[in-house]
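Throughout our pipeline, every protein is held as a single compact record rather than as scattered files. This encoding replaces a full spatial description with a residue-level series of whole-number codes. The remainder of this section carries one protein's record, kept here as part of the documentation.
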Amino acid sequence: MINLIQILSDKGFAREAQDDSVYFKISKLNDYGKLSNLNKNELKIGVSRINMDEYNKDNVRDFVPWKAWSEKDDDNF
């Protein structure tokens, strides 16, 4: 998994955020959604159970293939 994340970062498909999490940039992949027959331009923004203000995304549709651990995560276990 670490090697895959590194390849995505090296090729510009992902970026590391301030909290060390890595975000996949769907804007960099023209065929994003092809397997599920989704058009990335038609995806609904803001329809989520998660507060988007909590994350440091370039685009609200980006997702986290690598979530960095923090001490506050211990509270969730």
